[in-house]
Design goal:
Layout: H1 16-23, E1 35-38, E2 48-51, E3 56-61, H2 74-85, E4 90-95, H3 113-127, E5 134-137, H4 147-162, E6 166-170, E7 191-193, H5 196-201
Parallel strand pairs: 3-4, 3-5, 5-6
Antiparallel strand pairs: 1-2, 2-4, 6-7
Amino acid sequence: MHIPQGPTDALDLERFDIALQEALQPSPEYDIARWLYVPNRYSEYRYILGTRGSKPLICIGINPSTAAPDALDPTLKSVERVAHSNGYDSFLMFNVYAQRATRPDDMERFCNQELHEENRKAFRYLLSLSERPAIWAAWGNIIDKRDYLKVCMRDFAEDGRACNAQWFTAGPLLKSGHPHHPLYLKSTTALLDFDIEAYLDT
């Protein structure tokens, strides 16, 4: 369980570019040839956690919990299984908001714009790893927890559009119209085309 220790605007945020360079250096904690972990240590926020490969699937959730390299939580284990089942050799977990909170209700009430901008740099980096990025929308109904989450999501949709990204959802949409959260999906769940623009319009 991770409960935020306070608002993220009280933190001395590590810039994504600096955190990425540190994450590309050898670590005694995990194999950097297998893992991408930014920042490369446990903190109050996380930009990226995933595995390395030539055909990655970018999965977008809402916010990170306790997962770390070689210590995936149930959600990330499901993400990895679904990615492999659909023909991807790796997964890259990204979140609409970078603040760690096991319970979404514990997320801060207001968006830290500085954190969002650094998180957006992380997303653009992930998009740069593929000629045509594949993005799995996987946030479930949790996106309704905070109004700012949908505002942040519009920025990521814009970034994806600029890179001609492909968007997917795992199985059909929920009755609410949101894409499924990965946690309880079967590993064989097929990825289906997802119209992110139509989703944001409604």
